Amino acid sequence: MRVAIVTESFLPQVNGVSNTVRHVVDELVDSHHEVLVVAPGPGPAQYEGVPVVRVRSVGMPGYRSFPIGLPDAAVGHSLDRFGPDLVHLASPIALGVVGLRAARRLGIPTVAVYQTDIAGFARQYGLRADLVVDRWVGRLHRRVDRTLVPSTASKDQLAAMGVRDLHLWRRGINLDLFDPSRRSRFLHQRWTDGSRLAVGYVGRLAHEKQIHRLAVVANLPGVQLVVIGDGPAREELQRQLPGAVFTGMLRGDDLAAAYASLDVFVHTGDHETFCQTVQEAQASGVPVVAPAAGGPLDLVDHGRTGLLFDPTDLGSLRGSIATLLASPGLRHDLAAEARAAVSGRTWSGVVGELVDEHYRAVLAGTAAAA
Fold this sequence. Notes:
Blueprint: E1 2-7, H1 16-30, E2 34-40, E3 46-47, E4 50-55, E5 57-60, E6 63-69, H2 73-82, E7 86-90, H3 95-106, E8 110-113, H4 118-124, H5 130-143, E9 146-149, H6 152-159, E10 166-168, H7 185-192, E11 197-202, H8 215-218, E12 223-228, H9 234-240, E13 245-248, H10 252-260, E14 264-266, H11 276-283, E15 288-291, H12 296-299, E16 307-309, H13 314-325, H14 328-341, H15 347-369
Parallel strand pairs: 1-2, 1-7, 2-4, 7-8, 8-9, 9-10, 11-12, 11-14, 12-13, 14-15, 15-16
Antiparallel strand pairs: 3-4, 5-6
């Protein structure tokens, strides 16, 4: 099968969209499919031997390091040359629309993966565009052949926009990488001096993640806050949290060791369509505290595989962390149940589902209509 992936973000950007596309490409290539990636530039012209067509882009207002793809004839030209059987639209917003138009012109079926709550993102940055964005997103997804959503909350959100052909497609985990065996006593000792518990956040340091909520955790007695990641709000957050450990962005083995060396993982944002970091923490054997909103509602069974807090009440977040700090047994039980719950969520299986169930369904629909 020849698959063209038109994505709103790709390497060198590190975020949920880029990481998901990277794993999809890896698994497709391993299964002997031919792949083309079309992405906003600048960046490498290939990834692991797969060509990456770079198109014109502009930095997003307020977040200049994040490129937004612009209408570019290179999208249509690249699809013409590649001759795909199917076009995969990864988190389509701007460049995805161009990819959709090119696919429709060529009569090629499309699968769109909804992954970013752009309207929620706009609200966090004070942009009064959420209604316009929702109309745009709804119209786009109503025109594709099939939309895949990562969570029940996302499915409900798009259904309210009039999108009908919606299917749950979740994310995989690199279970060889994220594992409790990666825990480092040395790293934990370096963070905490052996006298405190390490409570950590992993992710992009940006305001849409509601990272300011970490302040209610940082001053809990016996806590050493650890912030793993980077982003446009890092300097501001460092001023607000002078006692926290900031590791910067970590990858690979370093990231896996950091996850597993935490005593509690906390996620603060309530606009997550999925929340991959929750899964990675669970796989790493770390008890999770996450907001009772969006993607985490599907990932955390409250009281069994983690704790959910009320995102409208910061006392709820603080109380959840305090409960875990006071109960080593509860921390152990939540971590063990969560690890068991995610033990089968491999990227190989998730991408196999993408191909066998979703790609083949739209290809069969196109053939039947011909």
